[in-house]
Each structure stands twice: as C-alpha cells, then as structure tokens.
Queue: 2 jobs
Job 1
Amino acid sequence: MTTTPVDSGRGFAALAGTDRVAGQLYTDPDIFEQELEKIFYRTWIWVAHESEIPEAGSFKTATIGRQPVIVNRDRKGNFNVLLNRCRHRGASVCEVPRGKANGFTCPYHSWSYSLEGQLRGIPYPEGYEGVVEKKEMPLERLRVESYAGMIFASFNQEIEPLEDFLGDAKIWIDRFMKQGAGYPVKAQGEHRFRFDGNWKIQLENTTDGYHFPIVHRSWMASVDAETADMLSFMTDENAVTHALGNGHSVAIMVPEHVDLEEDDGTEDLQGRFGHIIEELSQTMPPEQVRRIVRSMHGAGFNLNLFPNVAMSMSFFRVLRPIAVNETEIQHIALGLDGGPESVNRERLRIHEHFQGPFGFGTPDDSEAWDRVQRGAYANKDMPILVNRGLGRERTTEEGWKTSHVTDESGMREAYGQWKKMMSND
Amino acid sequence: MTSQSTATELDSATELNTAPGLELRLGRLADPRVAQAIELVWHEATLLDAKAYEDWERLWTADGKYVIPIDPETEDFEARLNMVYDDARMRRMRVTRLVEGYSMSAVAAARTARTISRFTVGELTEDAVTLRSAQVLVGFKREKHILLAADLTHRVRFTEEGALIDLKVVRLVNSDGAVTASGFLL
C-alpha cells in the first residue's frame, strides 16, 4: 500500500493525499472559492429528477454553486437549464421553487423569455433600436444531459458526455432504479436542512458505513428487529464499497438487495409490511407483491456521485455548498409513479422516520458533521484520515478498488477526483 | 392626555365593539373549556422547553396525532412527506430516543424558550376545543441563536382523564425551506 503525506507547500491540490487530507480543506475560504470555480462550475452537477418536471412547461429552480438556475421541460420534451438572470439588469426571472409556466418574465422591466431561454419580448422596444438584437440576448443556457431520469447540467460547454463521466456508476444507477418494481421511480417530497460544516463532510458521509451503528444507535433501537438486522453490516463480508472512478463510489449495506430483480425466494418479507402484503395480494400476483415489498427500503446501497448527489437506498441526497462552513442538504423521498398509494405512503413514513430535521437519523448526522467542522479548526497541520481499510483494499475484475463498507475507499475515490479537478488550471 | 383625545379613543373603542365579527366583551376566550385548553397548551410548552418528554407524552389522547408538515397548504398529512407525523407508537419511540442518551443531537440539544400567543378559537363543543395560535421559539446552542416561528393548531379533547391533546399541527413559516436539525421538539 502507498500512503502520501499531506504536502501543504504546492497549491491546494497538494493538500489531499491518497489516504489523508488537510483539515484546511474544510476550513479555508480560499479553497472553497476555488472549489466553486474548478469543480462546481466545471463538472456535471445534478439538478433534477425528471419526475420533478413531468410535463411540458414544468420547472423547478435550483442552485449550482452560488448561481441560480431554472430547470424545465419544454414542449418538445427537452430539458433546459437556464441561468436565472435577466440579460438586462440581472434580476432573477423566477423565484418560485417549482410550477408550470409558458416562459419567464423578469419582474423588473418585463423582458420575457421562452422555456428554451430565447428573449421574446422587450416592452417599449424603440429605445433599443439599433442597440439590442433580441436573438443575441437569451437566458444563458447550460449544457444538459440526463441518464435514467437523472438530469445533470454543466457550465462547461466542452465537458465530456455525461455517460462518460458517470462511467461504471451507470450500472448502479440502473440497479438503483429497480426499486420502482416495474413502475418508474418518482420524487415525492423532500426535506431540506443546513448544517454548519463543509460540503465534503457530507460527501464523505454517504460512503461512511463505519459511523452507522454509532451515530444512528437511537434509530436502530427504534425500528423493528428485521430492519435493524437488515442494516447490521458491520461484520458482513459481502458488504463492500467499490470505488467506481471519476470520484464516484458505491457502498453496499444490504448485499441481498443489490439487484432487486434477483430473488432466490429465501428471504422472508418483513412482518412490518403485513398490512401492505395483505392489501396488494387482493389484486396482484404473489411475485409482484414480493417484488414491491422487497424494494420498500430501496436499493441495498448508497451510490455517491461526485460532487453533489447520492442515490441513497430509497432517496436522493443532494448537497449544495453555501459557504466554507455551511452546507444545505435535500433528502428527496422516492416513490412508485403510478404504483399503489399504500406503498408510496409507507415509503413516506419510512423516510420520515430517519430523515429530515426531526427524523431519528438526520439530526444525529448533522450534529456529528458540526462537530467535525468545529474540530477541524484545531491544529491545521493534523490531517483528516481517510485510510481505513487501505490494508485490505483489493481490485475487482471490473477494476474497482474495493474494501469493506465500513472502510474509506469511497472517500479516497472522491478525494482523488477532488485533487485531479483542483489541479486543473 | 386631553379630554378630547380620551373621547376620541372611547369613540373608536365603541366602533370596534360594533364592528362586525369582532367581540370585545367577554368572548369565547373566557369560556372555561377554552381557558383550560390554553392552560394545557402553555403547560405543554413548559414541558417541551424543560425537555420533560415523558411527562409530555402523557398529555396525548391514544389516537392523538402530532404533525409538523412541509407543505404549507396540505390538510392530508398522510399523503404527504412531513417532518413529523406521529401517532402514539411513533411518539413513544421518539420520546425514548430523546431521553435514553444514545442520540448525540438530543444530548447536545439547544436550550429553548418558546412563547405561544395570538390564540383564536375554532371548533368549540362540549368535549373538544380547537385553538389556533402563533409560536416563537428561540433556542441557543454553541454561540448561536436559533429562531423558529410557527402557526400552531391544537385540538384539545376533554376526557375522563382530563384535557388531552388530540391533534397538534406545527406549521413552521419556513416549512418548505431549509429547517435546521435541532434535537428538540416543537
């Protein structure tokens, strides 16, 4: 195994070693500014799931780094991501979180734009004769591509295709979506909260199996024995983390639920879902009931996509850097589009139990992350360790560096990508 | 104060008294059931600020629902994602989590002081009162103040065991924005 000490002498990229990073990565405002420029304004950033903008004219607003954007679906069915900034004097043209519109009109002087961003109307246009050509003043369009309903945007028009960037993560995205059990997956509400810490603390956490039974002991104590058993992966040899390249990784907590289409029939359905099984069995064949109920907790893994989204068992975790020491998190609950109402409601209850500012899990995570940020100001020469499992890391035939799910292979993968992107000029 | 301005004030008070829809004589707030319900709401607030969660749990009817919705408009809480949607079973687990000492956010929870006022009376029957009010909660933790404002609805039911909370809905003014995870209850 190779370890690289943190070298603080050669620019910010050098502050990330292969198995440790400088605490400064969480605390230095100059590093944060460079991260916005070199990562958030350069790479693919997740902005929406297609179910959030289901029809022509549907839109949502989002933020990439500090820049407000509008994500919409136009009449041709294409996704557009537009800078939420009027070309005239800079006002935002939309401040509604989501909705349906024919276009966007700036509230300041009523310059109006189409869903594709073209400037359609300028009031009292005489003053602009020979000065402004409407076709030269559209809302700025970002590059947009989607995979399996996951919509990403980039300020970098020259960026590699999204599918190349996702690479082997696509295999896991496809597996993740199987929790729809024959129905498309849809977003069905979200929690939003902020914590007083750097965004990378959250990025690490999605691939941190090590903290789970400690930080989430009170949640574990509150759920039924079968659910607690399902997430008892600390000594399960099949529970592994794969580094997938480009900063992405997957942490497998429930190996038997990696591919929800594979079912050898030996797993007992959880007793807590008895009422759902009974209801669905009245109209559905047993194998379909089984498929839906086995998928109730989502996929058996957290897929961490660098830098801002995770597909985490049964929800999407989206992070937004606010400041070097402040991060906003969305936890988007997922359901079955067109699926049984009782199933979707049960999934909401499962989500509420753990997630959100009053859930049984999120507040404890948030407290831990606050503590990391506070501690990281102590002795900036003392590195943050991400070396757990380095001695037992191996490479699979797919080429994925792999160790136990409690190990830190996923974090090392993310910091590898961070280092690469922060080295770019 | 001149006698003239006093007279003007009296006049406007008389006007208010006769204004449609508003009672300035002894109104429903003076109803003994409403007074009892308000006392319960304030008692509940005192217990929550004191983090006396086991005592708080005893204030509820067996079917009581405790809800902190996200959607500011919805009345159909079951069909929506909420921050809290507790029946007696979830409430029991929530209280256990908050008092047993394994939750690091509960152990390190902010100190809070909440004020509830602006009461209005909705439904008023022999055995139930619905109260609407405003709550301002100020918390303090690690050098920072936390401010959370909410509209509250309490449905208080009068049972053989006394006045109990049958429904509590906490509509945070920032419910669909970012709400900081806090380790205490609203």
Job 2
Amino acid sequence: MRLQKILSGAMLALGYFAGIAGAQIKIGAAEALTGNAAQYGAPIRRGFELAVGEINGGGGINGQKIEMVIEDEQGKKEEAINVFKKLIFQDKVLMLFGPTLSNSAQASDPVAQSAKLVVFGTSNTADGITSIGNYVFRNSVTEADILPVTLRMASQKTGLKKVAVLYGNDDIFTKSGYDNFKKALQDLKIPVTTTETFAKGDVDFKPQLTKIKAGNPDAIVLSALVAEGAPMMVQARQLGITLPFIGGNGMNSPRVFELAKDSSDNLWVGSPWSVENPAAENKKFISAYQKVHTTLPDQFAAQAYDAMYIVAQALKKIKLTGKLEADRKSLRDALPGVQWTGATGPFKFRQVAGRDGKPAGYDAVQTAIVMMTKSNQYVIQK
Amino acid sequence: MLAQQIVNAISLGGVYALFALGFTLIFGVLNVVNLAHGAVFMIGAYAALKAVVVLQLPLPVAILVAMLVTGAVGWLLEKFIFAPLRARQAPHLAPMIATIGVAITVTSLIEGTFGSENLRFPAEVLPAEILSMGGGAQITWLELEIIVLAFALMAILLWGLRKTGAGRALRGLAESPKAAALMGVNVEAFFRVTSILAALLGGAAGVLIALYANAVFPHMGQPMLHKGIAVVILGGMGDIRGALLGGFFLGFAEVLSVAYIGSNMRDAIAFGLLFIVLLLRPQGLFGHVAQRRA
Amino acid sequence: MEWLDSFWATYNTLVLSIGTNVLLALSIYLTLATGLLTVANAAFMGIGAYTAGLLTTQLGMPLIVALILGSLLPAVVALAIGRPTLRLSGVYLAMATLAFGEVVRILILNAEGLTGGALGLNGIPQLTQWFDVALAVVLTLVVLLRLARSRIGRTMAAICQDEIATEIMGLNVRAYKLFVFVSGGALAGLAGGLNAHFTFFISPNEYGFERAVDILAMGVLGGTGSPWGAVIGGLLITLLPELLRGLGHYRPLINGIILILIILYSPKGIWNLFRPVSESTRLPAAP
C-alpha cells in the first residue's frame, strides 16, 4: 500500500515536473499559500497539481505540457494585485487562476480584464466578480444559485416553518451568502425569527445562539466557513439546541466532522460537489487524490481540479501561435463553449451582465446536490 | 434567556480575564505592551494539543507541558529582547515593535510546521458534561473550570504580591526600578521571573480557551489580543484585579449588547465603551493614577 | 524602453504603494515626533479612502476634488475627538486612539447602505497616476522638512522631551498637539484617497488593527528623528515583503525576524544610523 502510494506520488510528480522541463503552456495561479486563507488555498493548489500531473502524464495538450507558475497572494488584496501583475507582465502566463478570496478578486480581477487575459476563479462565490468583464470566469457556483435549492429541499424534508439566521457580517463571502439567503427566504416566504451576526475569528457564539434559541425557530440558517461554523454547532448542542443547521457552501467540507465531532449531525448543505457522489469521475478524482495526500479532498480541491481540466479542453481546441496577445485572446474565445463532466459533475458556462448592463464574465451552471450530515458522513438527499 | 446569557457572560468574562492576566503583568512590571502575548497564548494551545495527540499525555499533564513551553518562551523574550533593549536605553515604543516582530515570526513558524488549518482536541479529552443551573441555563464543566481558575489565579497572584517578600519586591519594582535596585532588589532577575510568569499564564489561557472553542490555529492569538488590550485598559493597566474585573466587564458588555441591542454592534459597543472609559477615567475602572509620560 | 514598460506594468502598484505608505509614515511621524503615541491613522486613512471613493463612484467628481474632501473629513473628525483624547498620554492615548479606530471600522462596516458594508466599495476608477503620488510625497516632505527646522518643529521636539516644561515656558501645548494630530489625520486621509484609486476596491477590514500596527511600525522602524525616517520606514515596510517573495513559505518568518533585528540593533530607528554627526549635538527627538 505504502509502495503504491509512493509510486503514484512519484508518477504524478514526474508528470508535473516533466511539464516544467519541456515548458510550453504557462499557466499562472495566485492563491493564498500563507496567512489565514491558506487553509483554502492549500487544497486548491493540490487540486491544480493533481490535474496538471495527470494531464502532463497523459502527454499534455496537443503534445505540449503545462507549466504551472504558482504565487502566494497571502489572502491580501494588495498582494493579489501585485502577484497578478507579476504573473501577467513578468512571467507572461497564458491565463491565470485565482485569487482565493472573493475580497481579493474584486481588486485583482480588473487587472486581468484590462490586460486582456483570462482570470479563472475556483473559489470566488461572492457577487460582483464576473460582472467585472468578459475575461473573468469562474467555476465556483454562486450562492445565489445553490441556496434556494438547499432551502427548498431542507424545508420539504424537515417541514420547517420559520428560521433564525446567523452570518458573518465582516467578510465578503459570508455577507454575500447572507444576502442570497435573505432573498431565497423571502422568495420561499419563510419568516425569520431573528438575525444575528458574528465576526471572523470569534470563538464564542453562545450569546447569539442563546438569543436564537429564545426565538424558537425550526432551523438555523448559517452563512459561515467551517472554521467558525463547526464551533457554532458544538456550542449550540451544548446549549441544548437540537435544531438542524442549513449552511452555505462554506460548510461543505469533511473537516466539519473533525472539528464538530459529535455535534456534526443535522447540517444541510448544497453544493455541486459531494464526497459521497458515486459518479465515476468523482470516484476517480477522490481515489487519485487520496493516493497522494491520504486525506479526503474537499470542495476547494475538487473545483480546482475540474477548473484545470476545463481550461485544458479549451486549450485542445485552439492553436497556440506563440504570440502572447493573440493566444490569450483565442483562449478566452474558446473557453465559454466548453462543456465538461468532472468531479463536480456536468459543467458549462453562462454569461452574466456587467455593471453597465452589457455582457460580461462567465458563471458556472451546475446542479446542486443537497446533503445532510449524519454519523460523520454527508448523506445525499433526494 | 436572561439566566443563560448571564452564564454566557461570566464564562466569556473568565476567558478574557485569563488572557489579560499575563498581559497586564508585563505592562505593570516591565512597562511593555507585549503584542507577542497572543502568540505565546497560541503556542500554549499547540503545545498542549501535541502533548495530548502525539505524546498521549493526559490533559492536566499536557497543560503543565504547555506552561513549561510558554514559560521558556517568556524567558527567551526577556533575555533576548526586553533586556537588551533596556540596556540600550531604547525608546519605550521599541520593545512593543519588537514583540510585533516576534508575533509574526512565531506565528509563521507554527503555520509552517503545523499548517494553517484549524485543529482540535480529541473529543475524549474534553470535560464536556453539561450542568443545569437555575432558570433554564446550562453550563459545561469546562466553562466552570475556566471561571474558577481565573479567580484562583488572581487570588494566588494577589496573595503573592501582598504577602510575600518577593511579591513586595515586585510591586516596588513596578513603581520604580531604580528605587528597587537601591533597596537591593535583583532587578534583572525579577524582570525575568515576571516575563516567565506572564508567559505561563498566557500558555494556560491558551490551552483552556483552545478547549473552550475547540479550535487551534496559528492566528488564534490575534482576536484575543484585541480583546485583551480592551480588557486591560478597562481594568487598569498593570492591575491584577483590574484584569479580572475588566474581563468580566467586557464579557458582560458584549453578551448583553448581543442579547438586547444587536450582534452587529457588539464590537462597536465594546470599543466605544473603552473609548469613553479612557476619556473619563484613563486609569481604567479599577486602576491607580496614570503616570504622566510626556 | 520596452524593459521600462514591462517593469512599470508589473510594478506600478508597488511603486504607488511605496508612495502612499511614505505618506502614512509621514502622518505618524508628525505625532510621534511630538511624543504622541496615536494609532488612529489607519482609521483616518479609511475615512479618507471611503470619502474619496464614494465621491468619484457615486458623484463622478474629479480626483483632485475627491482627494481634497477626502483629506478634509478625517481632519474634521480628528479635530472633534482630538480635544478630549489628547489629554491622555503614553499608552493610554494609544489605546484610546486604537479603540476609536475600531469603532470607525465597525461603523463603516455597518453603514451598508452608504459604504456597501462588508461587500466593500467596488469599481473605484483607476485615477491615481504616478505624478499624483509623487507630487503629494514631495510636497509633504518639503513642508515637513521645513517644519522640522522651524520654530514649530522645535516646539514639537520640546513637547516630546518635556511637556510640562514647555507649557511653563508659555507655549500652548494643547494647540500644538491638536495641530499635529489633525494634520496627521489629513495626510492619512490623503493617502487613503490615493490608495483607493489604484486598487479598485476597498473594504472596512483594511483599515483596522493590522493596518494601524503597520503604520506604527513604519514610523518607529524608520526613526522619528526626521521626516526622512518616515521615508525609510515606508520604503522598508513596502519593499520587504516584495524582496522576500522568493522565500515563499518562509516569507513572513524572515519578515518578522528582520523586524526584530532592526529594532534590537537600532532601537531609535534606521534613520538614526545615518544621522550626520553634527546633528547628534541637537536635542534628541525620539520619544
């Protein structure tokens, strides 16, 4: 078993490094490799590396191998801008992935847009990103698309009549999630008993949870990342709150089982990716990932992995002339038409409107899988 | 709900007080705003976690291990940073900036070694039984332990400072290092002891709060540092009782503002209160007269 | 020339950041040189950034107007809170200004309708050109260097050394303190406005504790003996992460170590190492 793991790791590494040796297609990635957001940037990087290793190991794209240039944007907006500029003007990449946080994307994506090369986010779900322009792409499905599906399924199965809402009001991701939750709740005509907030880095949620408990809701709708969400679930159970939690895709991570252990049951999330999804492509991805990293992958890794394959499909269709500007443009033109079934299921793009009403960037179109946690597993609900 | 919120306030206050004790000690005696206290706190949490998970030690032993590790860090801080700066007659801001550098370095070391993801203590280790108190309120054993510990530590420290010779020397030192030296107090040794002691307290706080929140991650010291500064100002910088009372005051202010005003204004109220207290009573609610430093 | 174009395209944000960071360092130099430990400049920067950003995005005002108003508003706020706050001294002043900064940040966060709250202010036009920043820095530097040698500058240093003695000599200490506090606020606001217009997007969390600590570090590391210290501090703090980029994962680690080493070996700041010998006969200005 060990030997097998070493061999697979070696093969992947060979495939990856072979890419560097016969360096031909330069793809950049700006992700948070240090700092607070590194817990998301790290799995994203692993997803990219896995995909690149496989693609290069299979002969590359039209005979050319991919060379990845990964830079650390530290989860900070100014760094993201600097790193983007370095990748675009100094390394002269063909396109680039990232950044990790929606916050950074707002600042750095315009740089790619005006430089006319594709920027592809795999973890940016907040509003206002793809509307920046027609060179901005993402395969991370927005909360606006997933949450209504999750809510509808959860309310169907639990018969909930009213909910309480808890969200992080100082982070663009959780705040954006909240805005979408609010709208979905209004559309479904589900009344809210109370809305409470917390800040990133908080460790104590008992005051908010106590207030929520007093309002007697049937479920708690949560816009948070696992780092805060898991302690929240633990503390809620400690206070005697047995209600279901309904989360945004920030809560879709197997880490919730480690972090919330006995209190992790009864959490509803929707996402295009589920570790339990038995589809063949997903199983292939999960076992390939586990061979190298032993742990299970999460949504961040899955989306990064698929994103690389999506770009690979577009690259297959175009002919690279070696003239940077022209190549960057032909990649951008080939990308919207790509349809791909990867670990996150069938995927295609959908163009959105920019702030001025004209057609701009491209969001993801994927179906959400709704899951509920039970005994340390995400159980798919139908 | 009120009963539970009061319980919440007391246990949150206990958490803040624990952190603030070490922080205020360094300011009171060494006159340094130790912005590395958050990092020390975080090291305590990691040390205990690894002691439990890797060395398979029982929790109380792990806490002692954590305190040993952080005590060593406190010693290092004093020996390599505070003492040299004092010897060089550095402006009084310099040590503070140095501690910022220490905090960055240490946090990055831990992040590089253990990764940036949240880790947690294994469930078996946590004293998680829940007790019911009157009025529908519930509290866990752990929270009770934290509150009791905060009070106990304060009591021990106060007793030590008032009743023992060493304690009196320390208080004299805090007032005036020169006078204490003239009285034969080994100033350098006492500074070292203080730094170690403060770090011990920080480490203990780190473990307990890591258990409370069940989250251990490299940047966990940062938000605590903000709150710690607020507590110490409210209570009076350098004042032990102030750290405790300030901690509870902040705990109550935060919880009650969430319960009755709105959770999004929680931090604004906490810091707004701080600002007002400073304007009206700069020495803090319980501190002694502020030293005018022009 | 192609080399220059490529260099500028890659590094223009960095160069502009150096400029605004130098302005920020100069803003805190003013108060530090007077012996005031105020750390509200991050909040003033935020107020300036949002003011200028909102004026250009919502009202379409030209940059220069937005910048002027973006420096005025923080100055007014500084004036308002300065009077009561500056009665404090030492660490208490620092904490009061820190608390004030947090309150400002949270107010901006919660004023969603106006500022966009956590979602930030988006789509700020890229109006800042290198000559705007260069002009601001050069002008400020010239003014402050003049100031340092003038009677005002000597009074600042005197207050720093011994406030009570200065008061006894008949100088209106309170007025001087307010003057440096308000000017510092205006400078920080200007830096904020300039910065907002080359980064597209601003959010409340950028103007909190971390930024306040950065600004303080710039002031102290560079040295408070002269405005040149601020220039050094601004340069250092901006360039250091960039220079260390090759170290990848170890970057913050080395960053922290360098900070510690600098303070240990030159506690009065780097400028102190370069001070011409003749100046050492003057009264030391570091607090």
